[in-house]
Amino acid sequence: MQPGDCARDNAVPLPPRYWWLKRLVVAFVLVAVLVGALRWWAGRTAQRRLDAQLAAYRAAGQPVLLADFDRPPVPDEQNAVALLNQAQAALVRAPQGCLDFADIATCPPLCAAYLEQARAIVAANQPALDLVRAARSRPQADWGLRLSTPVINVLLPMLGPQREIAKLLSTAALYEHEVGNDAAAVEALHDVLLCVDWMDELRFTILSHLVAVSISTQCVRTIEYIAPRLVMADVSDAGGQAAPRARVEALIAALLDEDGLRNAWRWAMYSERMLQLDSVQALCNGTMGMSAIGASVGGPTPVGLTRPLEFALRPFWTMDALHMARDATAVANAGLAENWPAGRAQLPAEPVFDSTLERLARMLSTILQPSLTRIAVLHFRALAERRLAATALAIRLYELDHGERPATLAELVPDYLPAVRADPFAADGRPLAYLTEAPQPILYSIGTDGADDGGAYALTDSGGVAWDERDMPFFLDRERPYETPSFPSTQPASTQAVDQ
Predict the structure, then answer these.
(1) H-assigned helices in 227-361
(2) I need a surface site. Which of 158, 219, 246, 426 has the fewest CB within 10 A?
């Protein structure tokens, strides 16, 4: 026996379970290294693809990142917003339960039914109206919005008040028309259209453009009510202040000038793309959590995501940012198409998730991405409404000159319209439709379904015209059905005016 043999004989062998533990530890370390390497590779690949796509956008002259949307401040003496903010502060709302300018703007027949109340509303808000008129002389609109990351947390307190100002202007236009002052009514309509332009100068997310579209619709509804009885200065005085022909023609031209609306649409989608990219970057660098995203958009707050899981998902979120950027760009291009069918063909397909992993990978899309089809339809609706309103004003000018409406829209060219405008919802480039001999004389667009229903329209449950069903009418004789108004109990209703 050699020395040391006893020591080896007395050594305690390593239990098998410890060998398995060592193997598990080694296996775990190897898997962790592999997962880390895959995560690093996936993150780097996703970021490289996203960077390449953004570089292509910038090479095409498109604004992409937050810094691309910075604009130098405008001095107050050149800034229309300085006066608009004062007008907002000067707004006088009626007490609860009383007729207000928002009621009249939504249902124009209320102006005739409650003329004295409308007079009081306009008088109380004359300082605000004067401030908006003074803003015309200022060439720029700087809303003072200075962006910082995360952009999704930037508030837009000006959106609601600007809609209120537009409703006040519409009420003033309706009132001035009812008392025979069409010159003042037309000027108020010009102010409403300027509110559209001023709102679109915000150039921040699709929300600002949708508010501008809402204001444009407000202007169109007011024109629809005023146009059938509009009086011009070179035709008849009618005991009041008739509208100068040049100002009516300028209103038609402003309605048909679509370059600003299309440019605003493009900027809105580019800014929406920037907001989405900035939000993903804030998530990936840890400056914002998923709960903050949900709270910012007013939607459901994602739960159940631990920090390690968020870390693992970041490469997928970067790829999701790439998908969202491509989708927003496609929608921007779709809004510039000649008509809705051509634009719809460019829209990306709505995402469909077949597994939990896909839902996790595209989670940000479900939170940050709006309904792309819906917002594009609203944009083309605004184009249709403005063309209809401009054509209706041209028909009224023709009627004042000739004593009757034209038999066809072609008779308006070139003295009243530069050309008969195409229906933006028709794929074949057909013009807007005109039914002058119908029981309800109307202009109409075939609407979102692309089918010509001969001017037939649908009603909502509340009694108004459903613009997204059947045809989209513009009434030439004040026959639009309005939603049932809630009359203040302290004020007598005029049934005759409401029936109009």
Answers:
(1) 245-256, 259-284, 290-297, 307-334, 340-346, 356-361
(2) 246
What letter represents residue 242's amino acid? A
For 75-91, what is the HEC assignment? Answer: CHHHEHHHHHHHHHHHC
CA separation, residue 444 to residues 243, 387, 448, 493 (Å): 26, 10, 12, 31
DSSP letter for 288, please.
Answer: S
Q: Are 339 and 426 in contact (CB under 8 A)?
A: yes
- Whole-angstrom CA distances from 355 to 307, 358, 359, 360 are 22, 5, 6, 9
Q: Tokens 């309103």: give the residue.
A: 389
* Residues 418, 389 contacting (CB under 8 angstroms): no
Give the number of other Cβ atoms within 10 Å of residue 128's Cβ. 23
Cα separation, 332 vs 196, whole angstroms: 19
